[in-house]
Amino acid sequence: PRNVARGPGGALTVAGLDVRDLAAEYGTPAYVLDEDDLRGRCREFRAAFPDADIYYAGKAFLCRAVVRMIAEEGLFLDVCTGGELATALSAGMPPARIGFHGNNKSVAELTRAVDAGVGRIIVDSFTEIDRLTELARERRVRPKVLVRVTVGVEAHTHEFIATAHEDQKFGFSLAGGAAAAAAFKILDEDVLELRGLHSHIGSQIFDASGFEVSARRVLALQSQIRDARGVELPELDLGGGFGIAYTTQDDPATPHDLAKRLRKIVDGECAAENLAVPHLSVEPGRAIVGPAVFTLYEVGTVKSVPTGTGGDAADGRAYVSVDGGMSDNIRTALYDASYSATLANRTSTAQPMLARVVGKHCESGDIVVKDEFLPADVQPGDLVAVPGTGAYCRSMASNYNHVPRPPVVAVREGRARLIVRRETEDDLLALDVG
Ligand code: LLP
């Protein structure tokens, strides 16, 4: 987070608060959210895309307090399940500012979205178009929809490759004409209002050219629809996926640079195709909340383990076990993601040692940070902070090994407040019947 510093005694502070005090008050592990950082990122996106709508992708992290923060900052919200929709509505998010995603929305979820009056539903299959048509007739409403287009740009973590054919579950493929067919089908159903096209090429993307290729391809479909039906769709959503820095090696584009490049492509293509420039939207999740949070852990054990490479313990690595792990951050185990860690309750002049920060779960893949240099005198009772854990950590947290999920503490201008409380063992037991 941005408002992090070292205070007297070398302890990490965030928004003017000493992490030792936060640990004493809220326990560890805890996710600490720098609220001004999150709000600052919302503002940067709004400033970068002044005439576009910014839909915060709630899957990155959602709770009522965050819904209110992003709403206050003028953002819209992308939800992709009934649960996310319920959270948004219960926090008072205006339904017209909600977009509803998902490749398998149930009839119950669609009904709820339609009845709530969500601003747009991003349709993902012909089955869904049929379901929504039936629902709209029955309810005598005219939902606004976007068509999710699979543009054939396959995004990998640090690169993209354009694929001739795609093989994944989302959207309507451009190849073979499914996307055009979906748009025509909706245009033929007078109970659905086709507002535009949508594409999302992946997540944690650093190479902006993937977004450019994608924008070009959806706009080509846009003009194909205009030529065939004489309708110019008024909106275009270019999705999310903007990468963030997890380690010092990562160098993501700023929202401003991204916006400039996307604008140029969209304006250029529209001019070339003689299309009216559609109203743009984007859906950043990670780039809004990811960098605004760190996880605060307490060290429980430190063990020196030979790596086997050099044959003796001097070539080993320290295993620093913390009081959480893959239940509060599955990304290292699941995606081989890179994080960093820092000693948080003090500074140390001890030599740096190669360390692996691991959790308390019963499997060896329970790694939070694969490789990090920590001071050689790290000991039980020390606090360790892992930055960049705002996105897809709490939202993907589990109760593996019956570990209660950590709280989320929002800090701002020297004050802390709990926005998600820690789970208790009673919470864990509450679902057991009998
Ligand atoms: N829009 C759509 C339609 C999406 O599917 C997603 C993410 C986003 C926006 C937001 O993407 P972001 O800006 O946050 O990259 N669990 C994975 C990430 C899955 C992303 C799924 N869709 C991870 O931890 O990296």
Features:
434 residues; alpha/beta; TIM Barrel; 2 domains; eight-stranded parallel β-barrel; 12 helices; 30% helix; elongated
Describe the structure in brief:
With 434 residues, the protein is an alpha/beta fold. The chain is built from 12 helices and 23 strands.
Description:
This is Diaminopimelate decarboxylase. InterPro entries: Ala_racemase/Decarboxylase_C (IPR009006), DAP_deCOOHase_LysA (IPR002986), De-COase2_C (IPR022643), De-COase2_N (IPR022644), De-COase2_pyr-phos_BS (IPR022653), Orn/DAP/Arg_de-COase (IPR000183), PLP-binding_barrel (IPR029066). Pyridoxal 5'-phosphate binds at residues 241, 283-286, 392. It comes from Micromonospora tulbaghiae. Keywords: Amino-acid biosynthesis, Decarboxylase, Lyase, Lysine biosynthesis, Pyridoxal phosphate. With 434 residues, this protein is α/β, with parallel strands linked by helices. The chain has helices at 19-26, 35-48, 64-72, 82-90, 107-116, 126-139, 178-188, 209-229, 255-273, 286-289, 331-335, 425-429; strands spanning 4-6, 12-14, 17-18, 30-34, 53-57, 76-79, 98-100, 120-123, 144-150, 153-155, 160-162, 172-173, 193-198, 235-237, 279-282, 293-305, 317-322, 342-343, 352-358, 367-375, 383-387, 408-412, 415-420. Helix 5 (107-116) crosses helix 6 and helix 8 (209-229) runs parallel beside helix 9. The chain has two domains: 4-32 and 291-429, Beta Barrel (Lyase, Ornithine Decarboxylase, Chain A, domain 1), CATH 2.40.37.10; 35-290, TIM Barrel (Alpha-Beta Barrel). Strands 4, 16, 17, 18, 19, 20, 21, 22 and 23 form a nine-stranded mixed β-sheet that branches. The protein has an eight-stranded parallel β-barrel with strand order 5-6-7-8-9-13-14-15, surrounded by five helices. Strands 1-2-3 form a three-stranded antiparallel β-sheet. The longest helix has 21 residues, at 209-229. The protein starts with a strand and ends in a 5-residue tail after the last helix. Mean pLDDT is 94; it is low at 158-162. 30% of the residues lie in helices and 25% in strands. The structure holds ligand LLP. Residues 57, 59-60, 78, 101, 200, 203-204, 239-242, 283-287, 331, 335, 391-392 line the site of ligand LLP.
